[in-house]
Structures are given as C-alpha cells and as structure tokens.
Sequence to fold (147 residues):
Amino acid sequence: MFRAIPFNFRTNANKGREMLENALETAADLSCNPVGRVSGALFPFRVDVVDTETAYEVFAELPGFKKDQLTVSYDDEKYLRIKAERSEPDYEVKFLCRERRTGSFERTFEIDGIDAEKVRVSLEDGVLHVVLPKLPEAINKKTFTID
Fold:
C-alpha cells in the first residue's frame, strides 16, 4: 500500500503552531509585499520580476511544462499574461498519490511603457524567461503645457 501522510495539527500541535508563527512573521517583515514568501500558496506558480535599466525581466517557475503548453501575451498595452495548461492524462489510470494539478494556471501583471515589438521569451530547465524592453523615456513621457 502507498499513501501520502498529511500533516496533522492535532498530533503535531507544537510544530503546527511554529509553522504558523514563522509564516506570519515572514509576512509582517516584508513591508512592500504583505503576502511575501507565503504567496506560493496563493498563486499557481512562482514568479520573480526584475527591473533593470533597459528592461523588465520576468522569471516564472514552470517545471514539467512544454513550450506548446504555455502562452505569453501582452494585452491592451499594459497587461502581461502567462498561461500554462496541463490536461488530464488521456488514458485510464488509478492514482495512488496525486499532487500535481491539472487544468489552466494563469498570472497577470500590469506593466506599461514597454516595446512590445522587441519582447523576447524563452524556456529553459522549467524556467520561463520574458524580457520586456522599456521604451525610451522620451517616447514614454508626455509633457503638458500650462495655460
């Protein structure tokens, strides 16, 4: 017989309390992002976004996905969408343990002031890398005259 043993708060009360305290302390310590490191439980896949001088770079962890299961789009000149889809197996199978989710997973980010024609997307070792070059400040900025 094979089965996964779930974490049991009743028999492991001290460890459960310690885990909860650590999660709350981590969230409280991060002033710019209130959910901080506990966000992995809230979002379907983990993402890092880096702001460089010339571009925004997005790194999304998508292990086990192939290129044809991923869609990266930039809508309405400000929304970057990363979508991953994993379908159910097309054969009959009896799972003894099932932790990998199937279905559609999506993250959306609001990013403006980029050159959509020069965006680069690559997938290597389960990490999706999206480079969003910034528009030159002169194009991205508009100055108004005062009457």
Summary: The first strand starts at residue 47 and ends at 51.
